[in-house]
Structure formats: C-alpha cells, structure tokens
Amino acid sequence: MQTRLVEYFLALEREGHFARAAAHCNVSQPTLSAGIVTLETQLGKRLIRRDRKYAGLTAEGEAILPWARQLVAAAEALGQAAETARGPLKGELRLGAIPAAMPAIGCLVAAMQARHPGLNVSIRALTSRQIERDLAAFELDAGLTYLDFEPPAHALSVPLYVERTMLVSAVDGVAVPDPLDWAGLAILPLCLLHQGMQNRRILDARLAERGLALRPLVTADSYVALLGLVQQGRLCSIIPDSHATLLDGLSWARTHAMPQADEGSRVGVIVSDSAPMGPLAQAVLGVARELRLPQGFRTG
Amino acid sequence: MQTRLVEYFLALEREGHFARAAAHCNVSQPTLSAGIVTLETQLGKRLIRRDRKYAGLTAEGEAILPWARQLVAAAEALGQAAETARGPLKGELRLGAIPAAMPAIGCLVAAMQARHPGLNVSIRALTSRQIERDLAAFELDAGLTYLDFEPPAHALSVPLYVERTMLVSAVDGVAVPDPLDWAGLAILPLCLLHQGMQNRRILDARLAERGLALRPLVTADSYVALLGLVQQGRLCSIIPDSHATLLDGLSWARTHAMPQADEGSRVGVIVSDSAPMGPLAQAVLGVARELRLPQGFRTG
DNA sequence: TATGCCTTATAGAGCATAGCTATCAAGGGA
DNA sequence: TCCCTTGATAGCTATGCTCTATAAGGCATA
To answer: Does B86 touch chain A (CB under 8 A)?
Structure first.
C-alpha cells in the first residue's frame, strides 16, 4: 500500500479535478491519473466515477475516505515522531480557531513557538463545526473553540478562558440605555454574526429563553467587519470581551455590560483523541495546559 | 512513506532477529536489512541498535513504535474497507479471549461467520492484560474479557454475559461441606489458576475481604488442566459456571455452589476505540450486540 | 459544420528502487 | 583452529513510478 497513491486519491477528492490535484501533489497529471488507476487495481474497486471528467467518488470511494485520511495522517505522524523523537518540533502546525477566539490565538502560538522554535503555524478562521469536521478528517492538528456547546466526540480538550460578551457602540452613535436589559437589547439597532455561527446561536438561545429575538440590521462573519459598522455610529454590536484588548486604544468605541452577568462560555484547545496521539497534538495540549493568558481573559 | 518498510521494522521489533523477521515478511534477509536502512534514511534517524547482531531499538525507534503500528493498522483497515465496502467481510479476524471466556467464544465466532461467511478467525488465549496491550498495538481486532476490572482506556465494549464461579470436585474425591462457607473453602485442597491471572486475582480479592487466603496445592494456566487434576479425586477447583456446559456429560464431576451468591463479573467484547473504527471492529460489535447466548450464560 | 479548448487517458522512454542469489566479515563457542 | 551464527555487501534483474508528448471525447463558439 503506497501512501503516495492514497495522497493522490485524497487530493483528487479535495480538488475534484485531476490536473489541479496533480499540481497540488507536485506531480504531472498523467502520473496522478495512473496512480489512481494503480490504487483502484490494488484495492480491487473503482473509487472514482468518470464520464469524460471527474464526477465524484463511487460508493466504495466514499467508504474508504475516512481510512484513507487516517492512513496519510498516520504516515505524517510517523514522520513527525521520528523527526522530533528528541528536540523541538518541526514542520507545520495546522490550527483552526473560531473568530471569537482569534485574540487569544496569538498567545497560544507564541507559547508554542517559544517552546518549539522550528515550528511553522498555519491558522485558519473556521466555524466550530468546521473545526470539528477538519479535526476528524486529519486536516487540522488542533482547534481553538467552544468546549461546552455540542462538544465533538473523540476529542480531548484543555480549557483556556471563559468568554463573556459585551455590547459595543460608537461614542457619538446610538444611545444605549444604562442599565441595559434584555428587552432593551432586542430593540437596539444591531449588527451581529451570521445566524449559523455558533457565537450567534448562543446569543439567540439566551434571548429565546426570555421569549425575545434579535433582529440585526446587518450580519457579517467577522468581528472586524462588525466593528467597522459600529464605527459608523448607526449600529451597535455584541462582541466577546476578549476583543476588549483590541478596543483599548480606540477613542470612538464605548463598551457596555450585557444585561446580565451571563455564565460565559468556556473556550479552549481541542485535539483529536486518537491513540496514539500525534506529537503535534501532544505539544499543543502541553503548552495549552501551562498557558497563562494576559489580563482580559478570565479563567473562570 | 512505504508501508512495506514499516512492516519490516515492526517484524524486526517483534522477532528480534533479522532473518526470522525476513521470513515472517516473506522476503529474503538482505531485502529486509536493506529495507530497514532505507527506512532509517527516509526518517533521518537510526532506529535499530546493532553491534554485530540485533541489539534492540534506539530511543527514536522506541518513540516511533506506536505510530508505526498505527500506520500499518491504517493501511490494513483501508484494504479491509475497500474489500468490504459492500458485501461480507473477508480476511482474518484476530480475536483474543481470556481462558474463562473460551466456552462463549464459539457462539461469537459462529455468529460472526454466519454473518460473514468469508471471514477467517484466529483465536488466541490471553490474559486480560495481554488483550489490552495487543489491542493497543493493533495486533488484535477484538477481545473477549472482563469489563469491570481495570477496564482499558480507549476501548468500546459490549457486555455478553455475567460470569459466576462454582466449585467442582470429583464424585469419589474429597468431601465438600454443604453448605460451603468461605472459611471452609479456604481449607479445601484446591488447584487454581496462576496467581497473576485475573480470574484468580478476583477470587483472591474476594477472600482477602474476609481476611482469608487460598493456598492452592497446584496452579495452572488452563481450566482443562484444572479439570484433569480434579478428575484424579485429590483436589477441588473453582471454575466459571460458563464451563458447566462442558461438564454436563461428565459422570465423575460434581459441582457445588460457591459460599455466597457473588455479584459475578461481566464478560464482553471490547475493541479499540479509534476513529474511524475498522470494519472488523464494527462487525464484531454489531454481532455482539445482537448475540443471544445459549442456556448456561446468564446475562445479568 | 468546423474549430478550439478543456479534461482525461494512453504510449514510450528513463530512472529509481525493491527484490533476489551469492558471498563476505565479525564474533562466539567447541 | 574450525565452524556456526548473524548481519552486511555486491551484482544483477524486474518492477514500476515518473516524465513528455499525444490522442480522444465532449462542449462551446464561430
């Protein structure tokens, strides 16, 4: 069983295109094409549906997909383990983080690189569900996400901090009642994350408990976009307090406590709980356990 | 990364001998020797300590051992998944079972082969600790063992039956008091399993709670050996009631209830809980869940 | 209808590598 | 000293992966 051929298969599944998959694997198109045929011959099944162009996987192809991913992940882990049997880690650490946790990721990455200077880090902003999915598909080494809501199966986690939310408005913008109650919040002109995003789902759930619903005038998928909207003065937004550090120097922004000191949402590092655990995952968990976040991140 | 070379490495680690490892891999000794060198070159580390003969693994070799096992297990699982994407399983199912559970393994295997006619099954009698170790090393697909004592981590289980023990003696052998109490048990001439075996540890623990200890005159590692000793008439033994079915036709044997209806020990199937779960493990769990054991195996 | 492009498969050559047999070198024991 | 065990080396063969070049089928457009 050639790991290389399985990589061809996975690249083809990702790209949906022979030539692009070949380029991604740094081989020629005929090489990848022949490699797929070889793999199909060795396994005794057709994996790809073709009618003059790529047309998805066969049922057998879909069936072996998880095992193919595990195989290349295992090969990768073996190389990592050999390279780092002693001494610092090398290679690339693939991190996924929810947007709300982005302010914290700098601390985590800095701590990782302090411990392992040769390590490259690749950060992707993802939804919590994408993080879960990509961890299972071995396309991420670790994730930074919520620990309490719909926690993924087969995952180990280390809590880092508790996120609370706050309302932010422009100094010369809409008037925010003080103190703010839930009903008052619901009638404010708001811009929020898209409805599918977990942070938004949590917020919606809190209001739904009280029979209220938010009707944001604008939705976006990034807090930077929300802050840009707030800066215009016409809207308010609700953002995690971890972003407060980013707002410290902003003269135009004003923050308000949310209607009720909510219990907060635990945010932490998760890795796939496979046996044995890869060296990268081990390292991330180890660093996360010892991590001390700066002021502005509450731990309980 | 060549799966083949990693198999060479694992075979060498198991056999501790280049030529034997090569024979086990169905290749010549120089081939395996060169394969190890190639693997060491690709990984950039020496894996084997050599001074004119095999002298164990280096630290790096030990470090990558779990990942090497996972890699070949993943390759194996990929082949299995492709072969059995639809239709019955093929290949070899490697089962480990504690001696006490051997009478039940026939039912499990029969049910597996009824569902998957092409499946070969290889059964090994092992201690519960060996089962746990070999599952982690991907050298077993499933185990039949105790579920309640020192359950292994990273394992999924399905309970099958509850094992209770009974005393067995020869009809014309030593007199057994009726009813039997713990103190009376302790002074009987007994033959039992070796002290390290888990069934024996459980029994010893039960007596230790009452300040008693068994001093068997003979110990063995198989119930057949114990029954042979009992047949001589001089000794009694304590065996699981699952063996009662085997004694049904024996005129020379007499069974006695143990001093106290003990709570019994749950026995069931365990598989390694890795993601994704191999097709063999899935099949064993599925069959075990639907398995109906015959009379003589209590389920609660 | 003809042309051109996009996509995948095929052909043939070159090279790397894994396999074999035969043999050698270094210890260890009789 | 001789012989056996153990692993490494040499030389050769065969397999097979990779490349470039090209063919073939479909689709859009002139």
So the answer is: yes
Cβ of A81 and B71 within 8 Å? no
Both A135 and A202 in a single domain? no
Do both B143 and B126 map to the same domain?
yes
Would residue A92 count as lying in a domain? yes
* Domain count along chain A: 3
Last residue of a domain, one of B58, B82, B106: B82
Is B297 a member of any domain? no
Cβ-based contacts (< 7 Å) between B 14-73 and strand D: 17-19, 29-30, 33-34, 36-37, 50, 52-54
> Could you write out the three-class secondary structure of B51-64?
CCCEEEECHHHHHH
A6 close contact with B: CB closer than 8 A: yes
Output the pTM of the full model: 0.82
pLDDT digits (tens, 9 = 90+) for B98-108: 988 888 888 89
300 residues of chain A, pLDDT tens digit each: 678 889 999 999 988 888 889 988 899 888 998 889 888 888 888 888 887 788 888 888 888 889 999 999 999 889 888 887 777 788 889 999 998 888 888 889 889 988 988 888 888 888 898 999 999 889 999 999 999 877 777 889 999 999 888 899 988 888 888 888 888 898 899 989 888 788 888 888 888 888 898 888 888 888 888 888 888 888 899 988 888 767 776 788 888 888 866 678 899 999 998 778 888 999 999 999 999 887 777 776
What is d(CA A114, CA B270) in angstroms, rounded to the nearest whole number?
Answer: 42
Q: What is the CATH number of the domain that holds B29?
A: 1.10.10.10
Given B44, B66, B82, the domain boundary residue is B82
Strand partners, A256: A167
Measured between beta carbons, the chain A residues lying within 8 angstroms of B3 are 1-3
One domain, residues A66 and A145? no
Query: Do B145 and B271 fall into the same domain?
Result: yes
Residues B243 and B201 in one domain: yes
> Of A233, A266, A267, A239, whose CA–CA distance to A255 is shortest?
A239
B276 vs A: CB within 8 A: yes
CA distance A185 to A192: 12
Q: Is residue B242 in a domain? A: yes
Beta strands in B119-252 (DSSP E): 119-125, 142-146, 155-163, 165-170, 190-193, 218-220, 236-240
Cα–Cα distance, A220 to A211 (Å, whole number) = 24
**Do residues A252 and A191 both lie within one domain?**
yes
**Residue A299 in domain:** no
pLDDT at A290: 93
B119–A contact, CB cutoff 8 A: no
B272 shares a domain with B126: yes
In 3D space, the residue among A118, A162, A124 whose CA is nearest the CA of residue A141 turns out to be: A124
Cβ separation A67–B276 shorter than 8 A: yes
Which residues in chain A have Cβ-Cβ distances shorter than 8 Å to B45?
Answer: 82-83, 85
Check whether residue A95 and residue A230 sit in a common domain.
no
Q: Which helix (H) or strand (E) holds A163?
A: strand A155-163
Domain that holds residue B69: 3-82
CATH code of A132's domain: 3.40.190.10
- Cβ neighbors of B34 (< 8 A, separation 6 or more) are none
Partners of residue B81 in chain A, C-beta under 8 Å: 63-64, 66-67
* Contact in structure between B134 and B105 (CB atoms under 8 Å): no
Strand D bases near protein CB (under 7 Å) are 6-11, 16-22, 25-26
Q: Which of A13, A76, A78 to probe by mutation at the B interface, max B CB count within 10 Å?
A: A78
